[in-house]
Structures are given as structure tokens and as C-alpha cells.
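FW: tagging you since you asked about this chain on Friday. Here's the raw sequence from the shared folder, copied in full. Didn't touch anything.
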Amino acid sequence: MADSRIVLTDRFDETVEAFRNLWPDTLFFRVHADDFLVEHAKEAVERAVLTSDREKVVVLSANFFTPIAQNKLLKILEEPPPNTHFLLLTPSKSGLLPTIRSRLPVENRLEAQVEEESGVDLAHFDLAQLFKTLQENRRIDAKKAIRLVESLAKEAMRSGRFTMDEELLAAFEQSVRLLDMGSPPNFVLTRLGVKLLEKRR
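HL: got it, structure written out here
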């Protein structure tokens, strides 16, 4: 029987196919985007409220779920229509709001991989630490900078030393997008570092 969950995966199509095989009598609707925006959340809600006698799974797959889109999904995730379940497919749960993560169990379907560490002492993060990090990464390329941002997001969340609100989650998400678009890594890391300083507990 189908049930809602967050699924960590970077192979969206294969994962959806695996669930189709697992639940062959279930109707599947999928909303996919690289960046999951408000319009995608609206489409997901419209699919969810379509009436059906059969069990229905609405698959939401994206590399990034924007905080605004996540807020738009909150109510329907909390009170789904009868016989309706949700699969949230994403490579990392660090980009999901705590309110979403608290509502759904997490299933890890990522290939086992060694998690990179940022090398940043977030337990004692201050201006000196930020300056040291920027100096150590002054020649970093965009790909490595994206991995550094992703590591920082996970470590900041695990540390419990930062207020992980929508603003900080959006800063991590925006940093990756800016690096993807060709912004200078040092500029992006400085911007993110300042935001981390603001959100220290």
C-alpha cells in the first residue's frame, strides 16, 4: 500500500519507475522541475484534489524546492485528500523546511557515497573563521564551491548553532544557483558567510 514520504535520490526517473512497480494498481501523477516554484506547487495541489476511486500518488521531484513553494504544499501534505499520497524526490533533505521534514518519513535511495566535509569550524564560526575560509578557497572553482555550499548546509543544520529558517535555507539555495549561473565563487561564499554570521544562535 502506498504511503507518503521524502525520498532522497539523484535518479528521479529510475526511482519513480521503482515505485510504479512497487504499487502497480496506483495512479501516478508527477510534477518535475529543476527548481520547484510556486506554479509547480499549485499544479501539484490541483493534481492531488482530482477525485478518483483508485489510490493516487503525486510525485514531486526537484533538485531544489523553494521555501515559498514548500509553504504552499504544507496544508495538503498535512491533510491530503482521501486515497492520496505524496512522494517528494530530492537529492538532499537539507533544502527542505523543518515543517516539511517533520511531516514525512525519509527514505534514502542515494548511492552510498563519502560525504565531503567543508573543513569550516561552524561550532566557533565568526568573522575570523569566515576570513580564513575565504582565504583557503580564494581559487576555488564553481563545481567545488557548490559542493562546499552543500556541505555547509548539512553541517550547519546538524550543528544546531544556526537559526535554520526560510531565509537561511533560501541563502544556501540561492548560492548554488548563483554559482551555476557563473557568479564569482568568492563573492557567493562571502555573501553566504555573512548570512551565516547573522543566523548564529
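FW: The helical segments are 12-22, 38-49, 67-78, 98-101, 127-136, 142-159, 166-180, 185-198.
HL: agreed, and The chain has two domains: 5-108, 122-198.
FW: great, closing this out.
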